[in-house]
C-alpha cells in the first residue's frame, strides 16, 4: 500500500467519467466536504478534502464546504473557524459556497411535515431505551411501537407541539414509518427529530427539536444539488435510508459513493478520542504537533503540498487498511528536501576554541541555501575563534567506524576550514571544551594540497549564536493500533517520551529572520520549523522530521528481495 503511484483512475473517478458519458447530471460535477464542527480536522479529513475539492478541480466542477451542524451540544464556533483555516491552508477554495446544515432547518421541517402528511412518519412517545430495545437485532426483527398507528392529524399536532417547545427533552421523537422487520437496522423506523432544548451556535434558540444525522444528511446533499456524495464505508448501509427519504419526498437525488477511510499507524483518528487527549491535558491543545490534526501537522512543519501528495499517493479504495506513519513522513521529507532552506544549528552544544585563530577576528563565509534548488542562492555565516559543535560529533575514545572529531583527527567544519582537535578539557568525566587548530589554507572547506578528511560536521559561531528552545517529537503512541486493542483504553499506550524539550540550543543568526511556521533544514539533523509561541527573546523551534528515511529503506529492501 502506498508505495506506488496509482496509474489508472480510482473507482470514484471512473464512476464520474461514466456519469459524464451518460450525461446523468447534465455534465455537472458537484461535490462537497461536510464536516461536523465538533472538533478539529485530522489527516483522515484531509484525505476527504483532497478527494472532494480535487475532483471538483479536475472536472472543472464545484465543491461546497458544508458544516453538518445538526447537533448543538457538541458544536462550536471555534471548530468552524479552525476547519475553514485548515481547508484554506491545504490549498482549497470553496469560493461563495460556504453552507450550514442549520440554514436548511426550515426546509427540513417542511419535508418532515410532508412525510407525516403522506403517512410516512409518526410521533413516538416511547423512551429512548425502549426504542432501541424495540429495534431488534441483526437476527431478530424489531417490534412496532404502540404509537405507530396514530392518525395523520394527531401526528401533525404533536410534531407542531414538539417544535413549539411543549415537550421536554427525550419526551417524544419523530420517526419514519418504514418497516420494523427489514434486515437493515437503519431502515427500522429511524428517528428523524428529537426534542433538545439547547442553544445552537448558528440558530441560537430558534429550535428545540433537532434533525438526526441520517434524516438531515441526504437532504443537505439534495438541497445543494450535489451530484456525487462521497463518504466513508460506514455509511454504505445508510444509503438505502437516504434513498428512501428522497424517493418519498420526490426530490433531487445525488449519487452516494463510499470509500475506505484513512487509518494511520501509531496514532488515532477519532474526534472523540482526540477531544479526550486535548481536554484532559495529555497534549497541549488541538494544534499540538504530536496530534494527527491538520493544525498539529501545520505547527509541526508539514507542508500542505506534502499532505496533498500523501493523499494522492495512498489513493482511494473500497477496503479499509492502515497506512504506515513512515509513509506520511517520507512524503513530508521528500517535499521539504526540495523546498526547505538549509541552516546550521547545534542541539546539544560543545564549545570549541580555535587556538590559532586571532582573538578579535571574525569573518563571513558563504553557505549554500539549498543544494536541491540553486535559485535559493547563498548566505553569509559568521565564523570566529569560539564555536559550538554537536556534542555527539566528538568522541574521546571512539570506536572504529566513528569518523567525526576525535583527539588528533582533522575534519571539515562545513563551509569553513579543516579543523584538528588538539586537546580535550574536562571537568571530572565531563567533556566541557575542545581546543582545536584550523588550517587557514583550507578556507571554504578544501585543501590546496588535495588531502582529504573523512567527515564534515556542522557548527555555529559562539558569539553570534542565537539561543533556542527546540522541541523534538516522537510517536504519540507506543503501539501501531492504540484504538483497536480490545479491553484497553487507548490512553494506556501513550508514549511518555513523545516530547523532548531542549533548552540550550545554539543556532545561526539567520534563523532570527524567519517567521512562525517557516520550515527549514538544520544540516545533518532534520527538518524544523518556527513555533508560533516564539517571542522576541525566546525562539522556539519544532522538529518536523529527522533526515533518516526509514520508508525509503523499506522500499529498497522490498526491491532487493523481489
Ligand atoms: P471521526 O470519525 O473522526 O469522529 P467524523 O467522520 O465524524 O470523524 P465528520 O466531520 O463527519 O467526521 O467528517 C467529515 C468528512 O470527512 C466525512 O465525509 C467523512 O466521511 C470524512 N472522513 C472522516 N474521517 C475520515 C478518514 N479517516 N478518512 C477519510 N475520510 C474521513
Ligand atoms: Mg461523521
Distinct ligands, ions and cofactors found in the model: adenosine-5'-triphosphate, magnesium ion
Count of helical segments?
Answer: 13
Fraction of residues in β-strands: 15-25%
CATH topology of the largest domain: Rossmann fold
CATH superfamily of the largest domain: HUPs
Strand order of the largest sheet: 12-25-26-27-23-24-13
Shape estimate: elongated
Integer average pLDDT: 96
Instruction: Please indicate the count of domains.
Output: 3
What fraction, in percent, of the residue positions are helical? 25-40%
Number of strands: 27
Rg value: 31 Å
Q: Which segments are poorly predicted (pLDDT under 50) over 5 or more consecutive residues?
A: none
| Name of the CATH architecture of the largest domain | 3-Layer(aba) Sandwich
Give the structural class: alpha/beta
Tell me about the largest β-sheet: 7 strands, mixed
The rounded distance between the terminal residues' Cα atoms is 16 Å
Provide the CATH top-level class of the largest domain: Alpha Beta
Features:
single chain, 562 residues, alpha/beta, Rossmann fold, Ribosomal Protein L25, Chain P, 3 domains, 7-stranded mixed β-sheet, 13 helices, 27 strands, binds adenosine-5'-triphosphate, binds magnesium ion
